[in-house]
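Notebook entry, structure prediction.
Reason for the run: the old model in the group folder had no record of what sequence produced it. Starting over properly, with the input documented here first.
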Amino acid sequence: MSINTNEFPPGLSLEDVASKENIQLSKFDSDIAWKIGTLAKQRAIDYRLSRPILIDITTTDGTTYFHSPSRPSTVKDNDIWVERKRRTVFRFGFSSYYMGQKLKSKDTKNLEEAFYISSIDYAVHGGSVPIRLKNFDGVVAALTISGLKQEEDHAFALQILEEVKISREPRYGNRHMDVSCISSALIVNSNIGQEEEEEEEEEEEEEEEEEEEEEEEEEEEEEEEEEEEEEEEETSVKFRVSFTYKCFYFVE
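New structure, fully documented this time:
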């Protein structure tokens, strides 16, 4: 395992450079950033890089999600390079390597004249690449590497993003997915559908039973009320009859 810089030979067109760095993730947050950063650190160990590198992941609003050397011995100068290359990505929406290749195509090699930016604050050397999302036209963050040759910094950053993108793609997106896997998925989905239907039927039956119970209770309450009313009427009639009888008896 090593850094593949063969994809960026001298003379590669700007269109090809832009195409190779157009890696779009389906999602990006602090957890994804941590995965990207820790993967980069692990790959730096796996590749047995001759120099330590500084790994940085920062969003366009200035929030740093990951900032760590691959191993001891990075220096403050690496931090400065990270900041300058990252600013270039956020300013132009392309990798710092792309902007360096674009500068080569111009008549001047002076950043101030070519892009109206200061070489103190910006760097057009490879190492900072944009992090993009699917269905979103813009840059959400940048992965920046400092410590190697600019072509290696650039290629390493892209390899990490590509590896993270592939690892997060859903299995059903693979065109060569085993048919048995698809069948199993369909069976599972059908079973889930049957369970949902059974649950709905049970809920409907329970609701019907509750409604019937409520109706029965209401009928019983109405019957009790009617009986009470009848008893009250009978008592009232008896009282009137008794009272009338007593009154007539007194007159006599």
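Summary: Helices lie at 14-20, 30-46, 76-92, 96-104, 111-115, 150-168, 179-251.
The old model has been moved to the deprecated folder.
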